[in-house]
Design brief:
The structure is a homodimer of 240-residue chains.
Chain A lengths: L6 E5 L3 H13 L12 E5 L6 H6 L6 H14 L3 E3 L9 H8 L6 H13 L4 E5 L2 H5 L12 E3 L3 H16 L3 H17 L4 E4 L17 E3 H23 L1
Parallel strand pairs in A: 1-2, 1-3, 4-5, 4-6, 6-7
Helix pairs in contact in A: 1-9, 3-4, 5-9, 7-8
Chain lengths: 240, 240
């Protein structure tokens, strides 16, 4: 059964980021009762090879595991695929080619909100995995370009990367301290807003803890997913 | 692909309770990296007719929608089905007959923890929907029996039912106030522990806010689901 507006979530990278995304879908939905909420299928199969290691060429490709997880959503009747993991978007195009369902791009959702909040003249900080930064996933995508400010190699090695891994290991206190320092360093160098470009980061660093306003890529994708679903349901209703 | 240990979550009743269950699965798993976590598929399709209305005979049966949602999980390759909604367990047996996958019963998971924490001599309070209470879902299940203490009709009408609906409508503050009063009333009448027998309730009433220790049925089911998954993976590993 492929009901209208069923959002398929290709998750598990990490599992807590998937839960955060699902919660943000609910928060982004105008609803009074259960039945008002958006129908969602989630495949949270965390046995996906490490994305950053694969980008560096030192680990196996996550693509076969991503395809297998996405095909579970196809078989279950999803009408859309979204991936609440920034780094996994390095494999977005081959995934879209294989799964043959509409997909929303996490980075496009975040960039649209960054452009609306900060404009193209403000300096925008970016926090993400090594692979997200080194691949230009954000900095190379979208026109007009934005004025990016990235962490230094030292900040990546001492703060950002260990902060992300601390989230995955469930060490929230350590993760908050590390990522807050990384955000402060970007703000000190002139960042007027910071894009949280790894879905582990908003789990521990939110608007209240950041020295400057943040763009939460997870929330941006959640809002787009809800809009897609409500639109599909309205289309079916108007056709009936 | 039916990989070992894939937990299928038949959810959406309500969606936030499903997210709470998924989070509790993660918390209950010993893990340092993404790949250590339990593989989970979730079907959170909230378009399921109201369970309490159906029990009263004034609404359509939720069974066809529950079967359809469960079949999505079967097609996606789940090896187990669990349902993070107490009231939906009134349709547990016909669901199990149709889906033909192993299922864990939420009430059995909660009763085992209640028995271990409070024993069979302590008085145990119960909070849940009208249908959960009136059907004897808890009070009629399992031997040896427990010494139950239920909310009065007035407490159900003024505190418990509106509290559960306030959770579904996202009004956390109102829900907390109402359900805390209901828990206090049970404690005042001698409840030594309280079973949170509706998955909306632990979203707003936890150990810290309750006047006596609580049994969180959602967490109990999450722990059993993780144990099932890890056992399946170990079985496959030992056979290899």
């Amino acid at each position: 059964m492929r009901d209208a507006g069923v959002v398929g979530v290709l998750g598990g990278m990490g599992p807590l980021a998937t839960v955060d995304f699902l919660r943000k879908v609910i928060v982004a939905t105008p609803a009074q009762v259960d039945q008002d909420h958006v129908p969602v299928l989630a495949s949270s199969i965390p046995q996906v090879p490490d994305r950053t290691a694969a980008f560096r060429g030192v680990g196996e490709s996550p693509l076969p595991a991503l395809v297998a997880s996405g095909q579970r959503l196809v078989r279950a009747g999803a009408g859309l695929i979204v991936i609440p993991c920034n780094t996994a978007h390095l494999w977005f195009e081959p995934l879209a080619d294989t799964l043959r369902l509409p997909m929303l791009h996490l980075v496009d959702a975040a960039l649209a909100e960054a452009r609306a909040l900060a404009g193209t003249r403000a300096r925008i900080g970016l926090l993400g995995t090594e692979a997200t930064l080194a691949s230009g996933l954000y900095t190379g995508r979208g026109r007009p370009g934005l004025r990016w400010l990235l962490p230094t190699d030292t900040e990546m090695a001492r703060l950002v990367t260990p902060g992300i891994w601390a989230v995955k290991a469930g060490d929230t206190a350590a993760a908050t301290a590390l990522l807050r320092q990384a955000a402060q360093a970007l703000a000190d160098r002139g960042a007027e807003t910071i894009v949280l470009g790894c879905t582990e980061i908003p789990l521990v660093l939110d608007m209240a803890l950041s020295p400057v306003p943040v763009i939460d890529a997870t929330a941006a994708l959640a809002r787009r997913s809800v809009a897609w679903s409500l639109e599909q349901v309205a289309l079916v209703a108007s056709a009936a």
